[in-house]
Structures are given as structure tokens and as C-alpha cells.
Amino acid sequence: MKITNRWKIKKVLQEGKDETDVLVKGWIRTRRDSKGGFSFIEINDGSCLKNLQVVTDHSMDGFEAASKKLHTGSCVGFIGKLVLSPGKEQSVELQANSIEVYGEADPEHYPLQKKHHSFEFLREIAHLRPRTNTFGAVMRVRNRLSYAIHNFFQDEGFVYLHTPIITANDCEGAGEIFQVTTLNPGSPPMLDGCVDYSQDFFGEKTGLTVSGQLEGEVFAMALSEIYTFGPTFRAENSNTSRHLSEFWMVEPEMAFYDLEDDMDLAESFLRYLLKDALENCSEDLEFFNKQIDKTILERHRKIVDNKFERISYSEAVQLLGKSNKKFKYSVKWGSNLQSEHERYISEEVFNNPVIIYDYPEEIKPFYMKINDNGKTVRAMDVLLPKLGEIIGGSQREDDYDVLLKRMKFKKLNSEDYNWYLDLRRFGSAPHSGFGLGFERLVQFVTGVENIRDVIPFPRTPKNARF
Ligand code: ATP
Ligand code: MN
Fold it and tell me: Does the residue 114 lie in any domain?
């Protein structure tokens, strides 16, 4: 009998019937030998969390030659017959009648031998950690969330926009940019004591994008509603469990939306994504609920069913002032909220997602729309319990004169932003948008504590090799 169509293990476990002949391929997770001349081999191919149990009879053709290569980590293929499984762990198991070994994994050297390895240990072997239950589950959830993000926006009629990765614009004006250059770092061309960037590849100083927002605005002012979903780079030296140097950001930008509309969109977007994950990643989420955080399923269901809290920055400062909790950083009106403050508000005060809006003008970028009081801007942050900030957004300043004044006030060179000012000079419209940190979303959905463990290859200070 020759079978050439491989069945994925997910399909075998969902659709496999008694007596079906199948070919399966995957990596051995465990092997157990019984005295009666059988080996029980569990294989996984990443299509789902569960392994397929394969029963091999030691008298089977080719078993003896293969047997010494059948260890945890080896890659194999089996042809055989499915039989209803006596164990309640799985619906069917495979009774093998032929075997092929594609690649052996020497047990003396293959690092993934134990059932549980620490996240720290796995980070050291980023090229092998996809073969663990946890990392496989994280990546399947990450995949589903990306898909759901596109579904959400496509269903709403948003246009998916690819904004540039190399840019001469600094969106935040915060100087957290990775420079891109082909000049020789040892002896760059100099002019009047400074590096002469007119001789650089692009003829001016360029870097990797910190946000696609400004370019997004250009297209919102023509297509009405767009979103970006791409890599973003920040050279900030924050060694926290919520910051990466390279992360993926989702940035919708919408003409004719004010801050209210922006907050409504952010809220329905997050609720949609959690609902989608609960419906389509139930096996993996149940695994996280068991292994990582016993409250995530309940928390997600609650968020799907309830409205977010909304309070102004001034109210948030009052709440923090009234609290008896000792904070590392004290808060007064005008100061930035630290993550300890954000978590206190979303976790302890409300135990619910919270949107804080109307922030002091001084702590926010130039493009946010100033309120009539002249003191606050139409900014909003969405905070989640256990995580803190997941979304930052605002209504954009759409008045040419006000924007120009704000740029001067923030000491920006308005010459560099002529194209951005043009959007207000020609056919300006009220518009808004926000940025969602994709890895923070994956952290929240899976309950994984450290952001380094929800991206295939994390880039952090002093770490870009694997
Ligand atoms: P934070 O205060 O948490 O450092 P931020 O206010 O600097 O974030 P924004 O510029 O508002 O971040 O970016 C929008 C979103 O992108 C944030 O709400 C967050 O979810 C995500 N984000 C920002 N910086 C990072 C980072 N270094 N790594 C991962 N995600 C990030
Ligand atoms: Mn922010």
C-alpha cells in the first residue's frame, strides 16, 4: 500500500475514523517501550497542541533499523491504520505498519529533553523553542490574531496600507531611532565638524520607522479609513517585560473620526479580537489557562461581555492621589503616568480595561489636537489589567495655524513637515487614529509574562542574533 497524501495531526484527531489509512509526519515528543514488544511514540507536527500516539510493533518491517534513531526530537513519518483510542486523551491512535526516519536527534545533545523548560532557558535556544508545547501554542494564537486583525478591518472597509520602513521622518520626535546608513562608521565624510549626510545613501539622515502614523494620515485623507500592520523599531533602552526594540504595530487612521469615535473603534476592535481568540484558539487558550494563568479565560470572557471604563487624565490623577498605595513615582497633574499607575487603575480600581483621555499637552506629541482649554490634547490610552498600556491614540490636529504653532512650540523644524502641513492646507478633515502593540496583545491573550516569549526572534538591547 502506498499513501502519498500526508494528513496533518490536527486533521487526524478531528476527522480520523476507525480503519482509515493515513500518512503522518512530525517530531517525536516522547517514546515509551512496553514489555509486550511495542513502542508508544507521540509525535507532533505543530498543527495543533495535541500529539498523535503511534503504536509500533517491534516485529514491523524496518523497525529494528529505525528503532535506535527514534528519540525525543527525531523527525519521522509513519504510514498506518487509525484505530479508536482506548485512552480518553485522544480520539484515535495510529497503528503503524511502516516507518521512515528523516532526521535523528542525538539524545546526548538535543536540548529539549524535559517536559518543562523555563522561558529563560528556551530564550537561549530560540531556534529550537518552537518545538515546545508553549511556544507552538503562542505562535498559533499569534497567527490567528493577525488573521483576525485583517478580518476586522477588511469587514469594516478599511484599506490595508504598507508604510515605509526606512524613513527620514521622526514621528514621535523622541530620538529613539535606529539610524540607517551606508557611510563608513569609522571615517564618515565631514562638513563643518558634523557628519555630511548629503553624501549618505539617501542624501540625508535616515532611520527605521518608529510609527507609520504620519504616512497613514496621508492615505486617510484620500481613502477615508486605512490601517497599517508592520514592524516598528525603537532604540529605547527599556529592559522591561513589555518592550522590544523591534515590534509589530497595528495603526488604523480614519478621516471623519473624532476622539469618541476613535475610542469606540479601539474598544470594539479589542473585544472582537478576544472573542475571535476564544472561539478559534480554544485548545491553546485552555492550555495557557492551565499552565500559565488560571484566570485568563474568565478575564477574556468578561471583557468580551462588558464595556470599558473611560476616565479623563485629570480624574486618573485624582484617583491616584486619593489612593493609599505607595508608588515608586509620585503623580501630580502634568506628569506622565508610569506603568505602576496604569496597572493600579485598570487592575485595582476598576479590574477592567480602562481608557484614559485628555492628557496634558506638554507630555504628548505635536500632532495631537489641542482642546479649547489650551491645556490638554485629545489623546487616549487603553489600559488592560495585568498589562498596562496596549493602545495609544488621538484625534489629530487638523487646523493648519494651530498645528504650525504647536510645531514651533515643540521646537520642530516645520520645513521638514511641509508635506504633513499640506494635509491641513488642502482639504483638511477631522481625523483620528491609534497604535496597538501587537506583541502586547499576544501577551495579554496568552497570559505570557515576558514580551520576549511571544515573538519568534526577539530584538532587545544587546540581543539581535537569534
Ligand atoms: P510605553 O509608554 O508603554 O513605552 P509608548 O507610549 O511609548 O508605550 P506609543 O508610542 O503610544 O507607545 O505606541 C503605541 C503602542 O505600541 C503602545 O501602546 C504599545 O502597545 C506599543 N509599543 C510601544 N513601544 C513598544 C515597544 N518598545 N515594544 C513593544 N510594544 C510597544
Ligand atoms: Mn503611548
Answer: no
390 Cα nearest atom in ligand 1: 20
> Number of structural domains, the chain?
3
How far is ligand 2, taken at its centre, from the CA of residue 234, in Å?
Answer: 13
Asked whether the CA dihedral 301, 307, 311, 313 is positive or negative, the reply is positive
Q: What's the pLDDT score for residue 466? A: 78
The finding on whether 440 has its CB within 6 A of some atom of ligand 1 is yes
Please state whether beta strands 92-103 and 52-57 pair in parallel, antiparallel, or not at all (unpaired): parallel
User: Residue 96 has what pLDDT?
Assistant: 96
Among 249, 367, 439, which residue has the most ligand 1 atoms within 8 Å of its CB, making it the best to mutate? 249
pLDDT of residue 187: 94
pLDDT for res 10: 97
pTM over 0.90: yes
- Shared domain for 333 and 443, answered yes or no, is yes
Assess if residue 117 is contained within a domain: no
pLDDT exceeds 80 at position 38:
yes
Q: Are 86 and 55 in contact (CB under 8 A)?
A: no
